[in-house]
Amino acid sequence: MGCALVASGAALAAGPLSPIYGVALPDGYRKWALVAPAQEAAPLNELRAVLGNDIAIKAYEAGSQPFPDGTVLVKLAWKHVQSPEFEPASIPGAATTVQVMVKDSKRYAATGGWGFGRFINGQPADAAQHQTCYACHQAKVQNHDLVFTRFAP
Amino acid sequence: MGCALVASGAALAAGPLSPIYGVALPDGYRKWALVAPAQEAAPLNELRAVLGNDIAIKAYEAGSQPFPDGTVLVKLAWKHVQSPEFEPASIPGAATTVQVMVKDSKRYAATGGWGFGRFINGQPADAAQHQTCYACHQAKVQNHDLVFTRFAP
Question: Which chain A residue has the Cα nearest residue B45?
């Protein structure tokens, strides 16, 4: 199936893999379409943006959950800093984490069909951090196929 | 020139045109690549995201200003609301404005090469609002070809 191939490609792309899930940073994700921005309060103080691959965006547009195999979501995060040029605005500072969710209902059957990866400077965070992903998503957004972010209109 | 054709296409796309500049909402902009998110403080209390067409993104990647003719930037804005699912996060609420900048150095020679459009529910704002665009951009970001938003790493 085309979708499954895309999912494998994303999960198995060249580059370091997350512990537990074996998820890599997908190729070319920085130019994917925007799902939505967000802000995270202290202590993180971050601006964030979730991007999705074509399969993800089509699923959002159709309003169809669960997301199909092959869905990949990437959340970029930056420190939240004051704009030096426009007083009311705060803007991205240094990049902090890049977090990936890959849907593969067979490979990740034990975690709701999702594999997770959290990267800092391109390197995966440790296993302890990855052990927190599924429990939190399951506890808070089980009604939206474990995905927090909605498509911003 | 291909770039000029793209610029004309964006500026003259079907749909209502902004006063003064005659800028339309470009086709398909919602799936353009992300330049950067931002937050705007009270009284607006908005989350924002600037998207760019391919010409814009290439110019950002090359770090080359002035932006070439054909560059189109679109800023989406939403009310900034508390996430009902994750306490530290705030997320997009209702959409507010969509703002467009189109580079066409001949057509918009009198305003630094940029045409501006501000839309609310798909309809252009009035001329008085459009008279404020250029003066503010010129006063604050003349050193960055009148563009506030930098590419978020």
Answer: A88
Is there a contact between A99 and A115 (Cβ–Cβ < 8 Å)?
A: no
Q: Which residues of A touch B95 (CB under 8 A)?
A: 152-153
Q: Contacts of residue A51 in chain B, CB cutoff 8 Å?
A: 34
Residue of A nearest to B52 (CA): A31
CA-based end-to-end distance of chain A: 31
**Residue B5 confidence (pLDDT):** 38
Q: Give tens-digit pLDDT for A11-40.
A: 446 789 999 999 999 999 999 999 999 999
Q: Which of B123, B115, B73 is nearest to B97 (CA)?
A: B123
Give B42's contacts in chain A (Cβ within 8 Å): 88
Nearest to A104 by CA among A116, A121, A122, A119: A116
In one-letter notation, the amino acid at residue A107 is R
Residue percentage of chain A with pLDDT more than 90: 90
ipTM for the whole complex: 0.91
Which regions of chain B are under pLDDT 50? 1-12
Q: Where are the domains of chain B?
A: 2-144
Half-sphere exposure of B33 (CA within 13 A, CB side): 19
pTM over 0.95: no
For B8, other C-beta atoms within 10 Å of its C-beta total: 15
Superfamily of domain B2-144: Cytochrome P460 (3.50.70.20)
Q: Is there a contact between A47 and B39 if contact means CB atoms under 8 Å apart?
A: yes
CB neighbour list of residue B38: distance below 8 Å, 6 or more residues apart: A47, A83, A89, A90, A91, A92, B47, B48, B49, B50, B149
Tens of pLDDT, residues B39-61: 999 999 999 999 999 999 999 99
Number of H helices, E strands in chain B: 4, 6
B120 to chain A nearest CA, in Å?
13
